[in-house]
Design a protein that fits this description.
The protein is mainly alpha-helical and about 200 residues long. Helix content is about 70%, strand content about 5%. The longest helix has about 70 residues.
């Protein structure tokens, strides 16, 4: 590349026009590169003409380039088109459609069976939940009955104690004992009959 003022630029170095460019042209790198290009051209032309030599180096052919994206897509579409054409019979119907219908039939049958099983499972779960609800109701009622039974038992014991206090002979009691007896009777009466107090 020649710059203004007669300078040349090679890579990152700038050479002046005072003979530096001649040194560059004759450098070893450039000579090797040019020689390789000449030899490659000679070999190609020699092989195209059909000549051969005994001491000749074997010609290294470049490997073929891989197929590009567009060509690969076209090849894939062509292959699909051929496979579809091969799958159809004389009437134009695909042989695969009968298989697909059979598969579809088996699939729909399987799906119906699965739905039936799911419905049965839901019914069983509903029965279990209703039975569980009923069992909890029964447990709640028995707990209430037990609570009421304990309350009634307690009240009956308190009533029995009140009756014993009422029927006691007070003639041999001192005034303090009589006062305590009256206070206990009032307390039991208030606990048993809160509306009378």
């Amino acid at each position: 590349m020649i710059l203004c003022g007669g300078q040349q630029r090679c890579g990152s170095r700038t050479l002046s026009s005072d003979g530096g460019s001649e040194n560059l042209q004759r450098s070893v790198k450039v000579e090797n590169y040019n020689e390789q290009l000449r030899n490659a051209c000679k070999r190609k032309s020699f092989h195209l003409e059909g000549g051969s030599q005994e001491n000749e180096e074997p010609y290294d052919e470049m490997p073929k380039r891989p197929m590009g994206q567009k060509a690969a897509k076209r090849a894939a579409v062509d292959a699909k088109g051929r496979s579809k054409d091969m799958g159809s019979d004389e009437s134009g119907n695909s042989k695969e459609s009968a298989i697909d219908l059979d598969k579809l039939g088996r699939y729909s049958k399987f799906q119906e069976e699965t739905n039936e099983k799911r419905l049965r499972i839901l019914e069983v779960q509903q029965k279990l939940s209703s039975e569980k609800l009923e069992a909890t109701k029964i447990a709640h009622l028995t707990a209430q009955e037990n609570k009421e039974g304990k309350k009634l038992e307690k009240e009956s014991k308190m009533m029995e104690a009140l009756n014993n206090l009422i029927s006691q002979d007070t003639s041999a009691m001192s005034d303090d004992e009589k006062a305590e007896r009256v206070a206990v009777m009032k307390c039991l009466r208030n606990a048993l009959f809160p509306t009378l107090a």
